[in-house]
C-alpha cells in the first residue's frame, strides 16, 4: 500500500558520480535533498577502470573541484598511484590521472553523502515518476513509498533498463551484478522522454596471484605528484604499480575464430557503443593490420588481489575470454575473478535538454551523466554538479547557471551534448575544446573559483586562498617583467647547453622565460631576488609568458564567439514561421531549441544561410 | 518576403534586356504590367512557361516582350519569379522596370536575388560568390574562371588543403588524447611537411589572386606617345571602330578616349591620350595633363613609337614616365622604312613589339606580349581561383596561422600550440567555403553582390 514518505526540494535518482555531485551541490546550496540508489554499498562505484582523470578528464575533475564539487577531494584521499600525462606535449594537454582504491572511494563518497546536512540517502528503486496536480514531481519506490520534489535529477547510469551480454548469455542487470532499474523507463516514456539504447562494456578482473609480472613492463607513478583538488595540501603518495603487456597473433586468432559468438557481431546488441572505448574484438576487427594491442594491468585497490585489464573490454563468451587472455605474456595462467561484459542501457537524446541540463519540455526535471549520453565518471560528475546547482537555483527562483565553451571543459561538454547531440557515448577530449590553450587543468581555479564562490558552493575560506594565489601570480608576473638578469659565464653555459642563443647584455627574467628552452627551475641560480612562492604560482607565470601570443589570440577568438553567444533567441520562437529557413534547419533548431545564435550556429544541419536568415528575422522582430 | 525587381542584364546597351521580378507577389505584379497575346494571365501559367505580349507602363504600351514564369521553389531565388525579356535597349528596359516598381515591386538591393537564392538554400556560399563574379566577368577567360568556382573547384581545392590539415590535426589529437595507447608521435619533419605543404598551396592561391583579378576585372591600360606616332590608329585597331579621330595633324586627340577591348581573351580598359609634348595650346595642355594622370593610374602602359623616325627628346622623356610600370614599347609604322634605333627600347621596356596599325600586322605579337607582361599568359582558367577579397582574406589568415605553426615547430614550442594554430587555419578555410557562419562573413558576401543575379 502506497504511503507518503517525505517531500524534498530536490530528488536525485541514482548515486553514481553524477548523482553524488548533484545531491551534494543542491544540499550545499541550501535545498533539502533525497538521493535514491539501488545499492547503498556502491555509492560512487567504479564499475569499469579503477582510475580517475586522464586526458581532458583530469581537466574536468579540476574544474569540478574549482566550482566546489567533491570528486577531486575523494580521488586525492583514495588514490594509490598518480601520474601527470602528456608532460612534454604542452601545458594545454597536461592531464592528471590517478589509480583509485575503488572500495575506499565508494566508502568515502557514501560517508560524504551521509554527513551532508539536509541530505537523505536512501536505498530504494524508483519505479514511477510523474508530475502531480499540484505541480510537484512525484516519485514512487518499489516498496510503495511516495516522495515529492520540486526538482528531480535523473542520474540513472547503466542501471536504467540495463541488460548484460556475454556471448549467448544475456540477462537484465545493472553494473557489477547489481539490480537494474526496470520500471522507470516506462514511466519516462509516459513523460514522452525520447529514450534510446546505448552500450558500453568492461574488461575482466583477474587475481593478482595468477599473473606473472616478470613478463610485463612496470609503470610507476610520478616521483613528484600533484593532487586533483586545489584544497589538498599534501601531495598524494604512490602506493601501487601498474603493468603493461601486449596481445599477439595468437590472441588475434582466438578472436577471429570466435567472432561469431560475439553478441555485437552476431547482431544481438542493438545499442550504440562508444567509438572511443571499443571492445577488444572491435579493435581486432577494425584494425586487422595491427600486430599487437597494448593492455594495462591495474590494481583495483590495496586490500584486494583483483586486477583490472584495461584495454580488454569484451562481450565474448566466458570460455573464449579465458582462452584469449591466456595467449598474452604474463597471463598464461590467469584466473578470471569477474567476467568481462557488455551492458546495454536506456538514455536520453540530450537535444531534449537545455544548457542548464533541465528538460526543455519538462520543467523541474534534469538529466545528468550516462543518462544524457555521455561516458566516463568525470563527464558524469561534471554534469551532476551543474544539474544539482541548477535544480537548486530553480527551487530558489534563480537564473540558471550556464558555463559557456570559453570558460571550461564542463561548458564545452554540456554545449556539445545539448547543441550537437551525440550518436554514441560522448567522451571528453582535449581536441573538443577550441580554446584549450586557455582551458588548462593548471588554471581551473583561476577560471571557475570566483563563479563557484558567487553561486555559493565555494566557501569564503577557499575563496580567500584563491584570492591570495591570484595576487601572488600577478605580483610575480610583474617582478619577472621588471627583474634584469645580468650576463655571466654560468648563465652563458646554461644557454649553450639548452641550445638557445646567448646574451650580450642583461635580460629581463620574463624575456628569458619566454624562450621554450628555459624555465624557472633552470634560472633559479641567476635570480637571487626570487620570493618563496608555491610552485603553482611560478607555473602560472611561466605558462602565461611562454604562451602569451597564443593566449592573446585565443582570447580574441573568445570575444568573437561571445558576440554571437550574446544574441539571444527568444523562448517560444516558432521556426516554422520564419520564411527562408530550410526545412532541415527548422527541424534541427526546433529540436535543439538553442538559447542564442552562437549555439544555433553549432548545430549540425544548420547552414550559414540559415543563421543569416535567423539573424535577419531576429533583427526584423526587434530582438 | 517582399517582391523585388531589377534589370538583371548589364547596364550597357544591348540586344535584349531582362527585368526580373521575384517574391510572393511576382506573378501579381507581372499580371498588372504584362498583357499576353493569348489573354491567359501569367499567374495562370505553370512554372517554366513563357508568354508573348506587351508591357504596359502607366497604361501605355512600352515594348513587345516575352515573359517567363518560374514557380517556387524551382527558380533561381527559390521564390516565384517572372523574367521579362524586352527587345529594347537600356531606355526601354528601364521603362519596363519602372512599370514593375509602380505596380507593387520594390527595387532590389545589390545582390538581393542571389542573397535570396542563398537564404533559400539554393546555393552555398562559394557558389553564390561565383555567380557574382560571373555577372561581373567581362571576358571569356574570366567567365571560365567564374564557372570553375560555380562547379566548386575552389571549394574542392580549399577542402583538399583543409582535409590534409584535419588529418594531421586528428593524428595529433589522438596522440594527445590517448597517451597510453601505442600511437606514434609525428616527427617534427612530418608535421613541417604537412604545414609547409598547406602554406605552399595557400601562397599559390593568394599569388594567383592578383593575376586572377586582371583576368576577371580587366586591366587599366593607357596608350601614350608623342603626337602623331599612331596612338589613335592603334586604339582603333584594338577596338575595331573609328573611335578616336585620326588625322595627320599632330595633336588631333585632345582628350582621353576610353574604350574596353578584348585582346586574346583579356579585357583591357584602354585610354587613348593626347600626345605627350610641351604645348602652348591651353586646351591641348589640359589633354596632356590628363594623359599623365591616366598613365600614373594605369596598370599597363602601351608606349607607342614611330619606326620611321629617330627617337626624339619627347620619346626619351616617356622612358622616365614608364619606369616601374608594366610597359610595352609598340613600334608603329613598321610598313615604312625603319629609322628608329630599337636597341635602347629593349633596355627600358618589358617588351618591344613592332606593329603596323595601318596594315594590321603584329597584333598577335602584341597580344602575347601583354599576356606575358601581366602574368596572365600561363594563368590557367581551369585552376581554382580565389574570387574576391573575402576569400583572399580567409586564405591570408589561414596562411598566417600556418606560418605560426611553422615557427612554433621550428623554435621548439610545444605541440599543443602547434595544433591550435593548425585548427585555427582549418577554421579559416572552413569559413571560406561557408561551413561555419559568422555574421561578418555573410554580411561581407552580400555587400559585394551587384543587382541582377
Short description:
The complex is a heterodimer of chains A (623) and B (453). Chain A is α+β, with helices and mostly antiparallel strands. Chain A is built from 20 helices and 22 strands.
Give a topology summary:
The complex is a heterodimer of chains A (623) and B (453).
Chain A: E1 3-13, H1 17-28, E2 33-37, E3 51-53, H2 57-67, H3 71-78, E4 79-85, E5 95-100, H4 102-115, E6 119-123, E7 126-131, E8 137-141, E9 145-154, E10 163-166, E11 169-172, H5 184-190, E12 195-202, E13 205-207, E14 217-219, E15 242-246, H6 249-258, H7 280-286, E16 294-299, E17 306-310, H8 318-325, E18 336-338, E19 341-348, E20 365-367, H9 377-395, H10 409-420, H11 444-455, H12 460-482, E21 484-485, H13 489-497, E22 507-508, H14 509-514, H15 520-523, H16 535-546, H17 548-565, H18 583-592, H19 597-601, H20 608-620
Parallel strand pairs in A: 1-2, 1-9, 2-6, 9-20
Antiparallel strand pairs in A: 3-5, 4-5, 7-8, 8-9, 10-11, 10-19, 12-19, 13-17, 13-18, 14-15, 15-16, 16-17, 21-22
Chain B: E1 4-7, E2 17-22, H1 26-33, E3 34-36, E4 49-57, E5 60-70, E6 81-86, H2 90-102, E7 106-107, H3 112-119, H4 125-136, H5 140-150, H6 153-177, H7 188-217, E8 219-224, H8 231-239, E9 257-263, E10 266-272, H9 282-297, E11 300-306, H10 313-322, E12 326-332, H11 343-348, E13 351-354, H12 363-374, H13 389-411, H14 415-432, H15 439-447
Parallel strand pairs in B: 1-7, 8-10, 8-11, 11-12, 12-13
Antiparallel strand pairs in B: 1-2, 2-6, 3-4, 4-5, 5-6, 9-10
Amino acid at each position: 500500500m502506497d504511503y507518503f514518505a517525505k517531500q524534498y526540494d530536490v530528488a536525485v535518482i541514482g548515486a553514481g558520480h553524477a548523482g553524488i555531485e548533484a545531491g551534494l551541490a543542491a544540499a550545499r546550496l541550501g535545498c533539502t535533498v533525497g538521493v535514491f540508489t539501488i545499492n547503498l554499498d556502491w555509492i560512487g562505484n567504479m564499475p569499469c577502470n579503477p582510475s580517475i582523470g586522464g586526458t581532458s578528464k583530469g581537466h574536468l575533475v579540476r574544474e569540478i573541484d574549482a566550482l566546489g564539487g567533491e570528486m577531486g577531494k575523494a580521488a586525492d584521499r583514495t588514490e594509490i598511484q598518480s601520474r601527470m600525462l602528456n608532460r612534454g606535449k604542452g601545458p594545454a594537454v597536461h592531464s592528471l590521472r590517478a589509480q583509485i582504491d575503488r572500495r575506499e572511494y565508494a566508502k568515502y563518497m557514501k560517508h560524504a553523502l551521509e554527513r551532508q546536512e539536509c541530505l537523505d540517502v536512501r536505498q530504494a528503486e524508483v519505479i514511477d515518476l510523474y508530475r502531480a496536480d499540484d505541480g510537484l514531481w512525484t516519485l514512487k519506490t518499489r516498496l510503495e513509498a511516495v516522495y515529492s520534489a520540486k526538482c528531480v535529477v535523473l542520474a540513472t547510469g547503466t542501471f536504467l533498463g540495463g541488460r548484460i551480454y556475454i556471448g549467448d548469455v544475456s540477462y537484465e542487470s545493472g553494473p557489477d551484478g547489481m539490480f537494474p532499474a526496470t520500471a522507470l523507463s516506462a514511466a519516462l516514456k509516459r513523460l514522452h522522454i525520447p529514450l534510446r539504447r546505448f552500450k558500453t562494456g568492461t574488461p575482466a578482473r583477474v587475481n593478482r596471484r595468477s599473473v606473472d609480472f616478470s613478463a610485463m613492463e612496470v609503470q610507476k607513478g610520478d616521483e613528484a605528484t600533484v593532487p586533483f583538488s586545489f584544497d589538498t595540501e599534501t601531495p598524494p603518495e604512490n602506493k601501487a604499480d601498474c603493468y603493461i603487456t601486449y596481445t599477439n597473433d595468437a590472441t588475434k586468432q582466438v578472436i577471429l575464430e570466435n567472432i561469431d559468438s560475439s553478441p555485437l557481431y552476431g547482431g544481438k546488441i542493438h545499442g550504440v557503443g562508444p567509438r572511443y572505448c571499443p571492445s577488444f574484438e572491435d579493435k581486432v576487427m577494425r584494425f586487422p593490420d595491427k600486430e599487437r594491442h597494448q593492455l594495462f594491468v591495474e590494481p583495483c585497490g590495496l586490500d584486494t588481489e583483483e586486477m583490472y585489464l584495461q584495454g580488454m573490454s569484451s562481450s565474448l563468451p566466458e570460455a573464449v575470454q579465458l582462452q584469449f587472455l591466456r595467449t598474452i605474456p604474463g597471463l598464461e595462467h590467469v584466473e578470471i575473478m569477474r567476467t568481462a561484459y557488455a551492458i546495454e542501457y536506456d538514455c536520453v537524446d540530450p537535444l531534449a535538454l537545455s544548457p542548464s541540463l533541465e528538460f526543455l519540455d519538462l520543467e523541474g526535471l534534469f538529466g545528468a551523466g550516462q543518462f544524457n549520453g555521455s561516458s566516463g565518471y568525470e563527464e558524469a560528475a561534471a554534469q551532476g554538479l551543474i544539474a544539482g546547482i541548477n535544480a537548486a537555483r530553480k527551487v530558489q527562483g534563480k537564473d540558471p547557471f550556464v558555463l559557456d565553451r570559453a570558460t571550461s571543459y564542463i561548458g564545452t561538454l554540456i554545449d556539445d551534448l545539448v547543441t550537437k547531440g551525440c550518436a554514441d557515448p560522448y567522451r571528453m577530449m582535449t581536441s573538443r575544446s577550441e580554446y584549450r590553450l586557455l582551458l588548462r587543468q593548471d588554471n581551473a581555479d583561476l577560471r571557475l573559483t570566483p563563479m563557484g564562490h558567487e553561486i555559493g558552493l565555494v566557501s569564503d575560506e577557499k575563496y580567500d586562498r584563491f584570492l591570495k594565489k591570484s595576487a601572488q601570480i600577478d605580483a610575480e608576473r610583474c617582478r619577472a617583467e621588471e627583474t634584469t638578469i645580468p650576463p655571466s659565464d654560468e648563465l652563458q653555459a646554461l644557454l649553450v647547453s639548452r641550445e638557445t642563443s646567448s646574451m650580450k647584455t642583461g635580460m629581463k627574467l620574463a624575456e628569458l622565460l619566454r624562450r621554450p628552452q628555459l624555465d624557472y627551475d633552470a634560472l633559479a641560480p641567476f635570480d637571487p631576488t626570487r620570493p618563496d612562492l608555491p610552485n603553482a604560482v611560478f607555473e602560472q607565470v611561466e605558462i602565461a609568458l611562454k604562451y602569451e601570443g597564443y593566449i592573446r589570440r585565443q582570447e580574441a577568438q573568445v570575444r568573437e564567439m561571445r558576440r554571437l553567444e550574446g544574441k539571444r533567441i527568444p523562448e517560444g520562437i516558432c521556426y516554422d514561421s520564419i520564411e527562408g529557413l530550410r526545412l532541415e534547419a527548422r527541424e534541427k533548431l526546433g529540436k535543439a531549441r538553442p538559447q542564442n545564435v552562437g549555439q544555433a550556429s553549432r548545430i549540425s544541419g544548420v547552414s550559414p544561410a540559415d543563421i543569416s536568415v535567423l539573424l535577419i528575422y531576429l533583427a526584423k522582430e526587434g530582438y | 518576403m517582399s517582391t523585388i525587381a531589377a534589370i538583371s542584364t548589364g547596364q550597357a546597351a544591348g540586344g535584349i534586356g531582362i527585368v526580373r521580378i521575384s517574391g510572393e507577389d511576382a506573378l501579381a505584379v507581372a499580371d498588372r504590367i504584362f498583357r499576353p497575346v493569348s489573354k491567359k494571365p501569367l499567374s495562370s501559367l505553370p512554372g517554366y512557361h513563357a508568354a508573348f505580349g506587351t508591357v504596359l507602363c502607366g497604361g501605355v504600351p512600352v515594348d513587345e516582350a516575352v515573359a517567363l514564369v518560374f514557380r517556387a521553389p524551382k527558380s533561381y531565388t527559390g521564390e516565384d519569379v517572372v523574367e521579362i525579356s524586352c527587345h529594347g535597349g537600356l531606355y526601354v528596359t528601364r521603362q519596363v522596370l519602372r512599370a514593375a516598381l509602380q505596380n507593387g515591386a520594390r527595387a532590389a538591393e545589390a545582390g538581393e536575388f542571389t542573397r535570396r537564392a542563398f537564404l533559400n538554400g539554393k546555393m552555398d556560399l562559394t557558389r553564390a560568390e561565383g555567380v557574382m563574379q560571373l555577372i561581373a566577368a567581362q571576358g571569356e577567360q574570366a567567365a571560365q574562371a567564374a564557372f570553375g568556382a560555380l562547379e566548386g573547384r575552389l571549394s574542392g581545392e580549399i577542402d583538399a588543403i583543409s582535409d590534409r590539415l584535419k588529418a594531421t590535426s586528428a593524428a595529433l589529437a589522438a596522440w594527445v588524447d590517448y597517451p597510453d595507447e601505442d600511437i606514434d608521435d609525428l616527427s617534427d619533419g612530418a608535421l613541417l611537411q604537412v604545414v609547409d605543404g598547406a602554406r605552399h598551396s595557400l601562397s599559390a592561391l593568394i599569388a594567383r589572386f592578383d593575376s586572377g583579378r586582371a583576368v576577371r576585372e580587366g586591366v587599366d591600360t593607357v596608350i601614350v606617345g608623342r603626337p602623331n606616332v599612331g596612338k589613335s590608329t592603334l586604339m582603333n585597331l584594338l577596338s575595331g571602330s573609328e573611335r578616336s579621330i585620326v588625322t595627320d595633324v599632330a595633336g588631333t586627340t585632345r582628350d582621353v578616349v576610353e574604350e574596353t577591348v578584348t585582346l586574346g581573351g583579356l579585357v583591357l580598359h584602354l585610354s587613348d591620350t593626347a600626345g605627350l609634348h610641351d604645348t602652348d595650346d591651353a586646351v591641348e595642355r589640359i589633354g596632356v595633363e590628363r594623359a599623365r594622370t591616366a598613365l600614373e593610374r594605369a596598370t599597363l602602359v602601351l608606349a607607342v613609337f614611330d619606326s620611321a623616325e629617330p627617337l626624339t627628346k619627347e620619346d626619351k622623356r616617356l622612358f622616365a614616365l614608364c619606369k616601374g610600370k608594366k610597359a610595352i614599347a609598340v613600334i608603329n609604322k613598321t610598313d615604312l622604312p625603319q629609322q628608329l634605333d630599337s636597341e635602347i627600347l629593349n633596355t627600358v621596356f618589358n617588351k618591344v613589339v613592332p606593329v603596323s596599325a595601318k596594315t594590321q600586322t603584329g597584333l598577335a605579337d602584341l597580344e602575347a606580349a601583354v599576356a606575358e607582361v601581366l602574368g596572365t599568359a600561363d594563368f590557367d582558367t581551369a585552376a581554382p581561383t580565389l574570387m574576391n577579397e573575402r576569400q583572399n582574406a580567409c586564405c591570408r589568415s589561414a596562411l598566417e596561422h600556418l606560418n605560426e605553426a611553422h615557427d612554433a615547430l621550428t623554435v621548439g614550442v610545444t605541440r599543443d600550440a602547434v595544433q591550435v594554430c593548425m585548427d585555427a587555419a582549418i577554421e579559416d578555410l572552413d569559413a571560406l567555403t561557408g561551413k561555419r557562419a559568422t555574421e561578418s562573413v555573410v554580411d561581407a558576401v552580400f555587400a559585394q553582390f551587384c543587382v541582377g543575379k
